[in-house]
Amino acid sequence: MTYHRGGNTLLHALLWTGVCLAVGVLILAIGVGAQWPDPQDAGGQAGALRAELFVHIAFGIVALACLPIVLLFDGRTIPRKTLRPKVLAAEKFRDFLTASGRGGEEFLAEDGSVESLQRRPGGWIPVAVGLLGILLGTISLLGAVAASALLITLSARRSWSLDFACLAVAIASQSMAYTLTPNAFGQFELPIFLVNGAVFAILVVIGVIRGAREQGLIDTAAQTLLRERSRQDRAVAEVRRGIARDMHDSLSHHLSVIAMYSGALSVRRDLDPESVHESARLIAASARRSGIELREVLTMLRGDDQGTVIDPDLERLIADRSDTVELTYAQPLTPELLHSVGALERTTIYRFAQEAITNAVKHAPGQKLLLTLSWISELESVEMLACNAHIADAPTVAKARDQSLAGSGLGLRGLKERMEAMGGDLSVARTPDFELRARIPVPNLKEEIA
């Protein structure tokens, strides 16, 4: 079984057996008082009456003995006290799975359902004992209530074949009662037989509904738990994508610059000392900046801050590359207005410029990159445009680029995710020039411009 049974289950079984015994004794007393004549007046029927009374008592005792056995092995995979709407919540369900050794996905069936937690027939021994109790208890006045409880309990075990078997045994037992206990049942009458059969069918339906309700509670709790796990998995995946995006945005740009200029230095032998000095300065600056941003990203990952701590200084980024990058603010947008927007918007604009510069360094070295920031009043958005001409690959430049750089396409993908997460968009055009255009909504900037 999937959980340990304690004294409460045994006490529950004995309690119901006691209730069935008390009600059975009352029914037997009423039946005997109503149907049996005085033994002195019975005459030749006295022996038959005593034999019939023995059948009622003996068969009833057997049915009452079968009841606690079936209740103890009732086929449940989750304790009865847990199967309540206000108890079987996802948290309690998780605790049960952990305590019963099903802490992972083991509670799922192969098809991903939770049918592995439904009621089971419980083995052939309790089923056989239950059918015997129904067969004998239906005949006996003393065991009639116990037989009804057995009929409901077995019908709740989520097995249609067992449900039909219980109903068939009950009807067959009713037929036998006309022969074994004629004083209690009287002569065979079809209306009474049909009414009793309908009662047995209702008891079976009650058992089926009971089992379906329990399974519905299990399914609801399990599906809630699965949805929670799915949300957690999606959250973890989103965090991983964010980490990958931040690592790419923080390091890829600087490493690309380092790889480009160091590759050019290894190939170009005709550079003058001033050019070599400038390339070395850019390499050193990019290396220092990449170290700083790496520490900032690691600080963010180790802390509880889900944002970014990188200083999005767009002017400093452009100043380091003033010979190859030109930044323009289209009126009415100005650098001062841009500094007044939120940190998230500034960081996104910074990442856009950084990715545009990285792509230009990789794929169009030596070409002028034009960055234009403008305000679209109709959309209350800032539009970013990066444009650079294509380059005719010179042999030395192409060799240096191919040896040191390999584009993965993750930069534009991550940038697109950033824009869409803020309600903006990103588009790429490759003819006649390479053009990267993005837009992010900045509604609070409207008041500043007005």
TrEMBL record:
Keywords of this entry: ATP-binding, Kinase, Membrane, Nucleotide-binding, Phosphoprotein, Transferase, Transmembrane, Transmembrane helix, Two-component regulatory system
Statement: the UniProt record of this protein carries the keyword Kinase: yes
Catalytic activity annotation: ATP + protein L-histidine = ADP + protein N-phospho-L-histidine
GO molecular function list: ATP binding; phosphorelay sensor kinase activity; protein dimerization activity
Ranges for domain Signal transduction histidine kinase subgroup 3 dimerisation and phosphoacceptor: 240-304
Keyword presence, Kinase: yes
One GO cellular component, as annotated: membrane
Residue spans crossing the bilayer: 13-32, 53-73, 124-153, 190-209
Enzyme Commission identifier(s): 2.7.13.3
PANTHER family named among the record's database cross-references: NITRATE/NITRITE SENSOR PROTEIN NARX-RELATED, NITRATE_NITRITE SENSOR PROTEIN NARQ
Name of the protein in question: histidine kinase
